Amino acid sequence: MAGEEDEALQPSRATYIIPFKRFPAADRHLSQAGTCIQGHHGWSTHKDTLAYAVDFRLPEGTPILASRRGVVAACADHFRLGGVDQVLRPRANFVAIQHEDGTYARYFHLKHQGVKVAVGEEVEAGDRIGLSGNTGYSSTPHLHFDVVDILPEDTAFLEFIVHDADGSSPCAAKPEFIPAIMAAFSVPLTDQEAIHAEVILADPPDARAPLNNADLVHGRAVLVERGGCSFETKTRHALAAGATCILVANHNDGPELFCMGGSKVPVPVPTALISKESGCMIKEAIQSPSCRGEVTLRNSEGYGRARRNLHTEANGDGNRLMYSTQTLSVPFTHEGLQFIPQEGRNYPPARGTRSRNARACCAVM
Question: What is the pTM of this model?
C-alpha cells in the first residue's frame, strides 16, 4: 500500500508528521486544500538548496502544527505582502524549529501576525505553532516546509556596545544584541572563537570603490551599506583596507534579513548581514566623536549544535562554505505509512485512497 500511495522509504530514526490536519472532503475536492503543489526537485522553485522542500496548498489561517519535537530557533510575523516580485523573497513570515539532532524544520509564508510561538519555546510534534498565509515570494496561499542542516537566522550572535572615545567607560547602559546572519561565503568561526573589534563606518558607505578611510578601517570591523555594487565587490574593498570583520547593513525596511551569497570561495574574514534598522542604530551611536562602538561576533549556540551533522558545499579547490544551507530529504509518517509527499496528492493521506491530481502553481516557494 505504501508503494501505491507514495514513494516508499525505509523507516527513519527521525519521524515527521504532516504539519496540518486533514481537511473535510469538500475542501479537499473543491479547493484542493492540503494538496502538495510542489514536491522535491519541483520545476518552479525547488532547486539547488531548496531541492527537498515541499509546498502544500492551504487556505489562509490554517493552523500549522510542529512536524517534530524541538525548540523554536527563529521566527518572524511582521511582513504583510505576498507576490512573485523578487524583492519579496526574504519577506516571508516563518517559524524555524531546531531538533535534537541539530537540524531545523522551517515553515514559511505564514500570515501577518500568524506566529503563535516564541524563540526558545519547546514544542512537541502536533503543537500549534502558527497560521498559514501568503507572505513573501508566493503566488498562492500555501505552506512551504523543509528541513535544513543550517538555519541562516541562527548562525550568528552579534553584540554591540558603545564606549567613551578613550575607552574608559561605556556610553550605553548595556550592550545591544543585534540579529545577524553570517554570509554563506564567510570564513567560519570556531565554536570557541569570537571577533572583538571597534567598528568603523565605510567611506564610501556602500564600499563600491576603494575605501577612503582605509587607515581607520585597518585592523577593525567595518560597517558597509547594502546596494550600489555586489557583495563580492564590497568585501574586496573592505579586505583591501585591512578590515578584520565585515558587517553589511541592509537597505530595505523590515527588519529584513537573509543569507548573503554570490561567491563559491570563503572570504578570509567573518562577514554578516544586519538589518537596516540595526545599521542605523550603530551609525547614530558612533557618529559622536566622544564615542566609539565595539562589536563581538561569534557563532550562535544553535549553529554549534547544527555543526555536528553539517552538510557543507565544497568547490573544486576544497574550500567549504560552512554557512551554506542545504535542504534534507526526510520522510513523513502518518498512521504507520511512511512517505515523501508527491505533487498532486492530498495530505495527510487516507488509507486506501488516492488524492485528486492538482496543477502546480506558477511560482511557489
Answer: 0.89
